[in-house]
Design brief:
alpha+beta, Tetrahydropterin Synthase, Chain A, three-stranded antiparallel beta sheet, 8 strands, rod-shaped
């Protein structure tokens, strides 16, 4: 009975010690076994692992690919046109021992603060060497690769691997937006004025060409009408001449009627002529007065 009384607490202590010496490494994590703050073992394979109870402790770090947002960063490209850039990075912990030595007990939070400084510094350095048009164009993919490559070396000192760096947003500072929009409006208005001027110039050329064509067509039509009229007058005169030759007395009578028609018009009926004028030969009655 007395032996049982002593063995039971010992058995409980043994069980507790055995359980406290065991820990599980998740497949999404890496584990460090620390003894008095010094790394004594690294557990990277998932499964069951052991440590010395009370003396050693276990610290785990995420083994997955992590993302880090870099807050708005004001940069000045080579053309002195300031821009606000938002970026993010994807990274992972590749060397947990070096990571622990670099950040100590600060962990991921401390590492991300230092990674932010690296990314900000390299972003300013790379984007400060090019123009704003290069940053806003399709060449930005090359610039992002340059930022990543430049950050890799510094991040390795933290036990981190920078996998990718992306520029999410590239805008003008708020103070410059209105000035930029005003300049864009002025440029568009100038282009519109140039287009209107070119249109007016083209319209004037077309109108001048149309007016010249009208004058040429009218001149040609008048020339042809004068030719036709001249030919018709010539034919008429020839007919008159032929008729006069065949019957001079009738032709004289016809000419007299034409003269009467032209002279005795409305508003032109006053004539001062001698009563015995030849003009009235065909108006005199051939019947004697009674």
């Amino acid at each position: 009975m007395r032996k049982t009384t002593y063995l039971l607490p010992v058995l409980v202590l043994v069980v507790i010690g055995a359980l406290s010496s065991l820990f599980i490494v998740d497949e999404r994590e890496k584990a460090l076994v620390l003894q008095f703050g010094r790394v004594v073992s690294v557990k990277e394979d998932p499964g069951l692992a052991f440590k010395i109870p009370l003396i050693q402790e276990v610290v785990t770090y995420d083994d997955r690919i992590l993302s880090r947002e870099v807050g708005p960063l004001e940069i000045t490209p080579s053309d002195d046109r300031r821009l606000i850039v938002d970026a993010f990075a994807r990274y992972r912990i590749v060397n947990v021992v070096q990571f622990r030595q670099a950040v100590g007990t600060g962990g991921i939070q401390q590492a991300e603060q230092r990674l932010d400084n690296i990314l900000r510094s390299q972003t300013r350095a790379v984007l400060g060497q090019v123009t704003s048009n290069d940053i806003l164009s399709s060449d930005r993919a090359i610039l992002m690769l340059r930022i990543r490559n430049a950050a890799i070396t510094e991040a390795n000192a933290l036990g981190l691997e920078v996998i990718d760096v992306r520029l999410k947003r590239t805008d003008l500072p708020q103070a410059n937006l209105e000035a930029t929009f005003s300049r864009m409006r002025a440029e568009r208005e100038r282009e519109a004025a140039d287009e209107i001027a070119r249109g007016e110039e083209a319209a004037q050329r077309l109108r001048a060409l149309a007016d010249r064509t009208v004058v040429e067509l009218e001149s040609d039509a008048n020339r042809q009408s004068e030719i036709i009229r001249g030919e018709a007058d010539a034919k008429r005169n020839a007919i008159f001449a032929e008729a006069f030759g065949e019957d001079p007395e009738f032709f004289e009578f016809y000419r007299s009627l034409a003269a009467y028609r032209g002279s005795l018009l409305e508003g032109n009926s006053t004539m001062v002529l001698s009563p015995d004028s030849d003009f009235f030969n065909y108006l005199k009655s051939s019947t004697p007065d009674k």
